[in-house]
Each structure stands twice: as structure tokens, then as C-alpha cells.
Design a protein that fits this description.
Helices cover about 5% and strands about 45% of the residues. It has about 130 residues and is mainly beta. A five-stranded antiparallel sheet has the order 7-6-5-2-9, with no helix packed on it. A hairpin with a 3-residue loop joins strand 6 and strand 7.
Length: about 130
């Protein structure tokens, strides 16, 4: 089992809903935000070079697609938290991938900072 933990910072003033891209090979087991306690569980073996993207940017329309197999939403196991987000400030994110992994096995997380109001967005951009 290969695992990694990283800290990312949401500099916005509201929750941020990320997009996560996994690249195989390897068996995707768990994605967890330790800060919020939200986890997603999988039993999904990614092929070498396969890219699977789970997109939480629209919480009412989550997608999980593969460049090889199309829709993967059915591979998310019961008990998973589909309300996966980054809280304000630092978030500790972990990923567990098992099976056959190589140097090509990777994951990346991206998001747009969000704000409760235009004042928060402007204030966040003012330099000292």
C-alpha cells in the first residue's frame, strides 16, 4: 500500500470544492481530508496511463470520469462522504493507493478559492 499526506491551503473565505486527478497504475483505496474528516472509499484499479478525475466543484453534480472507461461514480463505495471540500486555511489530505504502482502513479488536487462576498475576495488580494 502506498500512501501520502500533504497539506494544502484554502486562502478563500468559504469552503472550496476541489477537482482531483488520479493517474494509474494502482488500486485507488481512499482519499481523505483529515481536517474535515471527510473520506471517499474506492475499490478501483487504474490501468497504466489511465486518468480518473473526480470533480466536486459543483456539489450538486459531482462527476467521476476516466479517460478509458467513462463514468466511474459507481466505483465509490458506500460510507463515502460525497460532500468533500477544503475548509478555510490548511487542510491535511491523504491518498492511499495499493497494488502495482510505478513512478507514473500520481494524484493532483486543484480548486478555485471561493469567498462569501466580494469584500472577502478583494480583501484577500490587498497587499500590505
Amino acid at each position: 500500500l502506498t500512501s501520502g499526506v500533504t497539506t494544502v491551503t484554502n486562502g478563500g473565505t468559504a469552503k472550496a470544492y476541489p477537482r482531483v486527478k488520479f493517474t494509474g497504475p494502482g488500486t485507488l483505496v481512499q482519499l481523505k481530508n483529515w481536517t474535515t474528516g471527510k473520506s471517499l472509499w474506492y475499490n478501483l484499479t487504474l490501468l497504466a496511463g489511465e486518468e480518473a478525475v473526480i470533480d466536486f466543484s459543483d456539489p450538486l453534480s459531482i462527476t467521476f470520469t476516466s479517460n478509458v472507461r467513462g463514468n466511474l461514480l459507481g466505483s465509490i463505495l458506500p460510507g463515502s462522504s460525497l460532500d468533500f471540500f477544503l475548509s478555510l486555511g490548511q487542510n491535511s489530505i491523504s491518498l492511499f493507493i495499493g497494488g502495482t504502482t510505478t513512478a507514473a502513479t500520481s494524484a493532483s488536487l486543484s480548486w478555485k478559492e471561493t469567498h462569501h462576498s466580494i469584500d472577502g475576495a478583494i480583501q484577500n488580494r490587498i497587499l500590505p
